[in-house]
Write a sequence for this structure.
């Protein structure tokens, strides 16, 4: 018989009930920080690397929704690289290059600290939706005459 664990990883996010926080799965933050280092060290913006970065950063934006704004420069650069794969020389778009470098350096620091969010703060970040849920299979029929 196995002892139940206090944490569970679901879709790239780890829920830890003892610590009462949500975080990226173990090793994910370091992997993405290294990926950003690699992107910044090259002389070209590589489309596949930028797409991979954007895909991996989606999980962080689940924990910290405002971080998504820092993904805009890589997405814009990806749009400017023609074809499914390829690269473009750094310096081709000077303003976008400056924003790319600034955004990627910021993201690298965020991933380097391996962010975690307290579960109650995380739940408070979620939008509140009010809706009526009903089912005709439940057998309940409301009386509107009252």
């Amino acid at each position: 018989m196995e002892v139940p664990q206090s944490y569970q990883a679901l879709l790239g996010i780890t829920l830890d009930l003892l610590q009462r926080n949500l975080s990226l799965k173990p090793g994910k933050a370091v992997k993405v920080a290294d990926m950003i280092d690699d992107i910044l060290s090259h002389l070209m913006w590589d489309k596949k690397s930028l797409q991979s970065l954007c895909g991996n950063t989606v999980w962080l934006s689940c924990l910290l929704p405002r971080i998504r704004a820092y993904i805009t420069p890589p997405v814009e650069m990806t749009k400017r690289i023609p074809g499914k794969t390829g690269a473009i020389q750094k310096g081709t778009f000077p303003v976008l290059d400056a924003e790319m470098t600034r955004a990627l350096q910021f993201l690298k620091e965020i991933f380097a600290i391996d962010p975690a969010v307290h579960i109650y703060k995380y739940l408070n970040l979620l939008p509140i939706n009010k809706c009526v849920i009903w089912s005709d299979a439940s057998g309940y029929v409301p009386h509107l005459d009252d």
Helices lie at 28-41, 47-63, 72-80, 94-112, 119-125.
